[in-house]
Amino acid sequence: MKKILAELLTIGDEILYGQIVDTNSQWMSVELDKMGIKVIRKTTVGDVESEIMTAFAEAEQRADVILITGGLGPTSDDLTKPVLANYFNCELKINEEALAEVTEFFKSRGRELTELNRQQAALPTACIKITNPVGTAPGMWFDKGDKIFMSMPGVPHEMKMMMTEHVLPRIRKKYQLPVIHHKLIRTIGIGESFLAEKIAEWEKALPSHIKLAYLPSLGEVKLRLTGFGTSLPELERDTNEQIESLKPLINPFIYGYGEDPIEVVIGKTLREKKLTLSIAESCTGGYLSHLITSVPGSSEYFLGTMIPYAYEIKMRQLGVKPETLEKYGAVSEPTIIEMANIVRAKFSTDIGVATSGIAGPGGATPDKPVGTVWIAYSDKHHTVTRKLQLSKDRMINIRLASVAVLNLIRQSLPEVK
Amino acid sequence: MKKILAELLTIGDEILYGQIVDTNSQWMSVELDKMGIKVIRKTTVGDVESEIMTAFAEAEQRADVILITGGLGPTSDDLTKPVLANYFNCELKINEEALAEVTEFFKSRGRELTELNRQQAALPTACIKITNPVGTAPGMWFDKGDKIFMSMPGVPHEMKMMMTEHVLPRIRKKYQLPVIHHKLIRTIGIGESFLAEKIAEWEKALPSHIKLAYLPSLGEVKLRLTGFGTSLPELERDTNEQIESLKPLINPFIYGYGEDPIEVVIGKTLREKKLTLSIAESCTGGYLSHLITSVPGSSEYFLGTMIPYAYEIKMRQLGVKPETLEKYGAVSEPTIIEMANIVRAKFSTDIGVATSGIAGPGGATPDKPVGTVWIAYSDKHHTVTRKLQLSKDRMINIRLASVAVLNLIRQSLPEVK
Predict the structure, then answer these.
(1) What whole-number distance in Å separates Cα of residue A136 and Cα of residue A102?
(2) Which residue among A242, A257, A272 closes a domain?
(3) Res. B417: pLDDT tops 60
(4) Contact state of B304 with A287 under an 8 Å Cβ cutoff
(5) Are residue B312 and residue B374 in the same domain, yes or no?
(6) Closest by Cβ to A309, choosing from B42, B281, B304
(7) Dmax over Cα atoms in chain A, in whole Å?
(8) Residue B155 CB contacts under 8 Å (≥ 6 apart), including other chains
């Protein structure tokens, strides 16, 4: 089977000058990779006719699928449409269906259709119009022998919807693509190199049609297994078999197999078990609560937080005993235990968690360097603590300490009745 | 003066497959743009010799300055070095100075130098070695007539340090570049299109050697004035003159002229005025406190937060009157006023601020749609409230409401004694 090759072409001065970051091409890469299409090049050029023409011709030499974003706005510096018409040797003409769609788009928002907006319905006659359900610039699909050019708006949510609903299905129809099956294994609480060491033998023994990728981010590592073949049920069986033999090696670190990040996984468990959570966070300064409340519906299980940033607030508002603070300091096991227990009792929740540490750059002492963090979990049965030694970087410490608490909740939850 | 053109070349399969986002090229674009060098293309290719060779040759056709990142690791899939040696028709040889540096790098970290690490000091003989003070892969500078090729590691902080300390100064020396002066004007609390309307006349009257760019982000808009000329003092005078005539048009929205974001500006003001802050945040769920505490040293003025996410916590822990909540609801002016006043009193701070709203997607009522948010500011002299009608998107609402509170603090602070 011939491997289908793709090139991603981004058009716009604002990307060349660094005014915006191109996040579109990463998303597109991932989607194409999942389908078994190989991205061989990404190119960004400015709003200059000759540059765009050259980029089209070069891409056509190299790739089968050329996906273009940007340069479709209604103003005169947006050149993608006239250049496409030129490249495909045809004219720009009002597409009646596109005109009806853009008219409806403005009408439904109670806005007038200006002549500038009307021109958004002018398309190269050689293209197949692709509907843009969430914006005013239609997409344009061009067949050229075995190759295709597809032009889309640069606005991320418009591009994504167009890709998902129209472009990817069309590409699947046009080309004979390999059957591919992906399976994600989400791990937390173990660094990439330690993980790699634990699974080295298993990785070496993977059959040749199953590939492994490490996808690390701050505080977690995702493993992605990809099976290539001709039968989806066989691939599902094969990857599942591999996962079954992987599990015993790293089971304590696996927290999921899907798209849900740790804060969503924990939210689902809390909801299922009908448990409630409260937080006393000091060094994480609100970020832990932000992770928890970034999940829609979190008000079902998350009741509230106290951030006792100052010493007096730890005593007077939260209620940590002055003796404890004086004897052991704010960054200590006795203090963190009190913090988690008190917030749980005060807020009348099933679970209370707490953080206290030196996020940095200031605040270090000889025995408590920057990056020293205590975290605790408390429920009616037990209180669990962990001491973390993190980095020198404030933002990294805030993120890692928060993720460590989420992991501590995950580890401790199964025991709560 | 001839315009100097640059091309940015990123090498690595992990970017083509979407496993990581390339943030390097945006940073480099901004730095080059500031110097008056025009980036005309960005290209990403995979770890394939022929692809890299072609990309080198194409870039040399188009640009004067070719900046290459990635592909410098010690493993066999990293090809940039051998391909550079091939392209410049020379051999790879251990560079004694580079070897000394990489040996020292490992020694200072108490680690053994393996043969693989030793090979990081092997460089194409045609290059000038550029020191990497924070990593093991040296940079390589190649002069080719009027053009230069510069190869750097893909690790962002290594690339940035190498660029700032060595590459940009060298480029400045090699080429005759225009004298450029940038000035940033940071605004908050006004949308891009309203801002554009207010300053349309002023913008039209800008002299031709001063350009204006809009740099919008969620909750604020930065304006960047760039002056091009031959004398820096003249450009400084010219841009300052323009800013003086801009000020009366949008003064209430300007919060700064430098690199400090709003949370840093507010932190500085609070510190200077020796004022303390506490927060009662509901719908923003910790994000407002996170913004405040992301600033190093914020413990000097920020004492703590209560996040009364649940109705009962608003009453029992924070102390909002049950009558107020019952009569007006949690998302109301009377409630937000109590929240700000109570947290200020409880935490004994000079200033108290509060948020309460419907972040979405759930929780809306007919008269309080998703995106309805009340915010309040309280000090000993007065309490100020604002009602916001934000978006349908939970994360956008959390961000915009938090930024609106920061702006409310900024607007209210001058009156506190």
Answers:
(1) 6
(2) A257
(3) no
(4) no
(5) yes
(6) B304
(7) 83
(8) B135
